[in-house]
Amino acid sequence: MAADETPVRPRRGPSMADVARLAGVSGQTVSRVANDRHNVDAATRDRVLAAMREVGYRPNNAARALRNGQFRSIGVIVFELSSVGNTRTLDAIAAAATMTGYAVNLLPVLDATQGAVSNAFTRLGEQAVDGVIILIEAHMLDEAEVLLPEGLPVVVVDSSARYDYPIVDNDQAQGARLATEHLLDLGHRTVWHLGGPPSSFAASRRRRSWEKTLTDRGCPVPPVLVGDWSAGSGYEAGKQLAADPDVTAVFAANDQMALGLLRALHEAGRAVPADISVVGFDDVEEAAHYWPPLTTVRQKFAEVGRLSVDALISEIQAGEHHHQPVSVPTELVSRGSTAPPR
Amino acid sequence: MAADETPVRPRRGPSMADVARLAGVSGQTVSRVANDRHNVDAATRDRVLAAMREVGYRPNNAARALRNGQFRSIGVIVFELSSVGNTRTLDAIAAAATMTGYAVNLLPVLDATQGAVSNAFTRLGEQAVDGVIILIEAHMLDEAEVLLPEGLPVVVVDSSARYDYPIVDNDQAQGARLATEHLLDLGHRTVWHLGGPPSSFAASRRRRSWEKTLTDRGCPVPPVLVGDWSAGSGYEAGKQLAADPDVTAVFAANDQMALGLLRALHEAGRAVPADISVVGFDDVEEAAHYWPPLTTVRQKFAEVGRLSVDALISEIQAGEHHHQPVSVPTELVSRGSTAPPR
DNA sequence: CCTCCTCATGTTTACGTCAACATTGCCGCG
DNA sequence: CGCGGCAATGTTGACGTAAACATGAGGAGG
């Protein structure tokens, strides 16, 4: 940050003054045309429009933002785009924001540790956005929270309940219950669980809900296997599960781990779903074409994205806090990877 | 765009003037501290820093941008984030841009058709970015090009050679040759191809290179099957291929179609790789855990993202055009889905 | 002891836009 | 004919920042 020796020639474009001169009107009239005000004579408007086109005028957003005191832009803090859920949520956020006339600023968190404190508060919220949607796991937020500027509207997409920001997320608990009950309803004695990393709030929500569903039904609770969301970790866990003849049903905390699990079962010669049933979580686009096609819990990322933009914008514009967390229900998508035990 | 009745109270934060007053210095000195200039007395700097912290000062980027004539922000035009390649490239772009001190503005193209012309030139490049990276297929660019503001630095990530913008992309032709030769080298008489949609330049590059590799080697060129990148389209194509006993090797133009293909072959009872070998393209994260693990061509999206940011920034700062397209070589990742014909 | 230089700091101004207030000209109505 | 009113257009100023220039204090060197 210290070195910033970039002698960039600004290359400023034409401004309202240039258009005004060419059209023979005042800058204010140009402004009125640019903002579609009705109180401009049709002939004048045409003249201004023509002048704009001729000089290639584009309004300068910086000046606008300075004048208006708002940027019409929202920031999205993400850690890694690699996660399917983040990507799909971001896509929906971008669409919703664009339709509302807001720009989307991507604020990637490059590493978990924050740099020098002197820069810190200059960094993230550098007042170029009107609000922020946070897509990173809540535990990462803990470290970063210090530098979240006060007064900046924030919406968190996470199932953590610890923050007094508005929260929007898929209903993790309901989804996990759906998955577990589906397997029990098929007649399995109990359901094993391949969970996500302990650092993830969503993972622990799913695990707890799975556990509660089992105990509610009076089923034994097998030990939890722990993965890191990756197909590789699912594969490793799958090798263990394949070796245990007691296992007839597994609920994986996401589709990628389920995929690795499937591979391990294939390699071990355990048939799915004949020997072992598998349920995933997410419903990634490819899940329908896994072998066998994966029964999974569909998360409505698009809905979550849309709702989080709604929440943020209403907070930006009205200052309203929705302290009631918004939970988007999931649904079970039944495909070929589950069947009654034999 | 006509309706814009949002009475937002600006809620401006503290400015340099507030800090200056509190610290008992001039605004200019605050500016110097904020920009890490060296010619400020240590004691004064501390005082200013303390004042900044006290009032919660954050520099106003709009004012900065207005003053400096540049935004330190780049726009990324994407059509859909759903494509794996786009997402991974975007991730790399965001990381590279952030490290260079540039913000990333996501500019989603919501639909292929553009709206009213009167808004059009107000829309996209609304002068809030210093340059643009275009991640959409080139053919979509044709329709939108009209409204690309002149003088705005642009880098295109696409293998189309038609534009006089700097171009960065994975080397599609080399990758397709790698895939085809791999199968021929294993002893297959020829290689079938499941191509991407005709609208995609990358898809046609891969197809042409596959064809050329076959003819160079004197192999017969089977008819091309056409998909739309989705696993579903791969599945449909796979059903056809599975029914043809002549088929022993298939090169799918991406991993998702390869996945659908694998599923179709499983359902038809055709063993992979014993009966049919399959090669994909992309090397998505899950490819190693498909069943069987997929041999594929790895694209270096991260590299492409990094290089495109480099190209854009050097153009922004120096006005240099790299009219020489940049091709990033791919590499073949050999896994379990390919074997010699039996 | 005076001059000149350096370095910290202050003052002025412009960046592009748009709200608020001014001005002009025209129309209708008494 | 005169006056109020309205519609179109112009003028002024402020948003927050930082470059350019100005000022002033101290130090080195003759």
TrEMBL record, chains A, B:
Annotated Gene3D superfamilies: 3.40.50.2300, lambda repressor-like DNA-binding domains
Region (Disordered): 320-342
Protein's name in the database: LacI family DNA-binding transcriptional regulator
A Pfam family it matches: Peripla_BP_3
Organism expressing this protein natively: Kribbella sancticallisti
GO molecular function, one term: DNA binding
PROSITE patterns: HTH_LACI_2
Domain annotation HTH lacI-type: ranges: 14-68
